[in-house]
Amino acid sequence: MRTRTLAISALFVLAAYSAAAQNAPVHVLASNGVKAVIDELKPQAEKATGRPLTIEFGTSSAVKKQIEGGAAFDVAILTSDVIGDLAKAGKIAAGTQTEIARCGIGIGVRAGAAKPDIKTVDALKKALLASKSITYAQDGASAAYIVQMEDKLGIASQMKSKTILEQGSVRSNARVADGSAGMVLTLVSEILPAPGVDLVGPLPAEVQHYVNFAEGIGPNSKNTDAGKALMKFFSSPAVAPTLKAKGMERP
Questions:
Q1: What is the pTM of this model?
Q2: Domain 104-210: CATH class, spelled out
Q3: How many other CB atoms are there within 10 angstroms of residue 108's CB atom?
Q4: Going by C-beta distance under 8 Å and a sequence separation of 6 or more, which residues neighbour residue 33?
Q5: How confident is residue 23, by pLDDT bands cut at 50, 70 and 90?
Q6: Superfamily of domain 2-102+211-249
């Protein structure tokens, strides 16, 4: 009788463990650049995977350091170059790297402020030089390309003294919202949802640069099937309208 009771108890424990595993959240590490899209689509994504999502956001470079330091995750959604580097290092499961979106760099100003003309390269140059200050995330995916743009425009030396570098786009956007910086330069997808900031527009085509984003499965994920379902959802045509609404597009 005691043996039978123990066997039944063991079955209940196994059933409970199995149920918990089936409902375990999918742990996602993601770039700030895709935050607006993920926040909007989270309910649909959870429905598609049949699991709740736990999501941590940061700059791709910061998240890369987390992963390199051993952070556990099921799915990473970061800039394509970072996902590529992690895949080479064995930090993304082989064969799971998938391109999902790209986004251009834009300019934002304080909500309600006059929007400068940036439609042409000459107009952009004048607007940057006329601004009291600019800010961007020094650890952001677009930082290197902003520096390259200033060099191309021949205004790098003039802009150096009026540039405020921040950690992450949230803080650089906040600088513009509170009036301590005149313009923010970052990905359009990071400007659109920022409180107190209005998008002026994307950079002109001649100096525009697109940052691509990709996704991949964690090599030690215990939720591989759910992770693949999530990746399939973000790669599906159903996501395209939300990408467009948040300033992104298919690569």
A1: 0.86
A2: alpha beta
A3: 29
A4: 60, 79, 103, 141, 169, 187, 189, 190, 211, 213
A5: confident
A6: Periplasmic binding protein-like II (3.40.190.10)
